[in-house]
Design goal:
GO molecular function, one term: ribose-5-phosphate isomerase activity
Shape: globular
EC number: 5.3.1.6
Pathway: Carbohydrate degradation; pentose phosphate pathway; D-ribose 5-phosphate from D-ribulose 5-phosphate (non-oxidative stage): step 1/1
InterPro entries: NagB/RpiA_transferase-like, Ribose5P_isomerase_typA_subgr, Ribose5P_isomerase_type_A
Largest sheet: 7 strands, mixed
Radius of gyration: 17 Å
Structural class: alpha/beta
Order of helices and strands: HEHEHEEEEHEEHEEHEEEE
Number of strands: 14
CATH architecture of the largest domain: 3-Layer(aba) Sandwich
Catalytic activity: aldehydo-D-ribose 5-phosphate = D-ribulose 5-phosphate
CATH topology of the largest domain: Rossmann fold
Length: 232
């Protein structure tokens, strides 16, 4: 699939997901290429249809895009709940286990998600997999002692790689931390891995989002299709 086709599927999924946001809602707005199409559509509805809602964003770049359309954005601590959060995912399997953080926003994404009544992911069909893990798993780590954390991951066979910018500097998250990507290939026991990672001193958060999502809207050539998590 070429990029234009993939973008068309992402856009269709984003437009479909935008229908979930209604007047008076508090909506969490995720980060990434698919979410950009969602925010474009929400911006259109605000300007053309008079939609009024409040947004909480998972990254500074989503905030800037949304505010450019006149969408009201507030800090997460200024709201007592979020009605629905719509975000992308890098991979999702049939058990609704996902990997997020390809855009390095996993910590803010998880904080917003865990404070949401409903979570919806929008993806193109290439992101739906049998077993997660082909996409490298992002782990946000504090810069102090990061080299030791990476060594610990190496000893466990996690194949860690410190994420670098084009200039060869460590990528910094919105919280100024590093991202270490684990090249696992496949993750057969995601919960055990999640527990191990979060209990590693120096790790702030990891990109495993396990059984958190209520619905996944998949951009499909035949039109967007919805996967519903019956365990939620």
């Amino acid at each position: 699939m070429d990029k234009a086709q993939q973008d068309a599927l992402k856009k269709a999924a984003g437009i479909e997901a935008a229908k979930l946001v209604t007047d008076g809602m508090i909506a969490g707005l995720g980060t990434g290429s698919t979410v950009r199409f969602l925010v474009d559509e929400l911006g259109r509805r605000v300007q053309e249809e008079g939609l009024q809602f409040t947004g909480v964003t998972t990254s500074r770049r989503t905030q800037e895009q949304a505010e450019g359309y006149g969408i009201k954005i507030v800090d997460i601590d200024d709201v007592d709940h979020i009605d629905v959060t719509i975000d992308g995912a890098d991979e999702v399997d049939k058990n609704f286990n996902g990997i997020k953080g390809g855009g390095a926003a996993l910590l803010w994404e998880k904080i917003v998600a865990t404070n949401s009544n409903k979570i919806v992911w929008i993806v193109d069909e290439s992101k739906v997999v049998d077993t997660i893990g082909a996409f490298p798993l992002p782990v946000e780590v504090i810069p102090f002692g990061a080299g030791h954390v990476i060594k610990r991951f190496e000893a466990k066979g996690y194949k860690p790689v410190l994420r670098l910018t084009a200039e060869g500097e460590p990528v910094r998250t919105d919280e100024n931390n590093y991202v270490v990507d684990l090249h696992l290939g496949r993750i057969d026991h995601p919960q055990a891995l999640a527990d191990d990672l979060i209990n590693t001193v120096g790790v702030v958060e990891h990109g495993l989002f396990l059984n958190m999502v209520d619905k996944v809207i998949v951009g499909d050539p035949n039109g967007p299709r919805v996967m519903t998590n019956s365990n939620k």
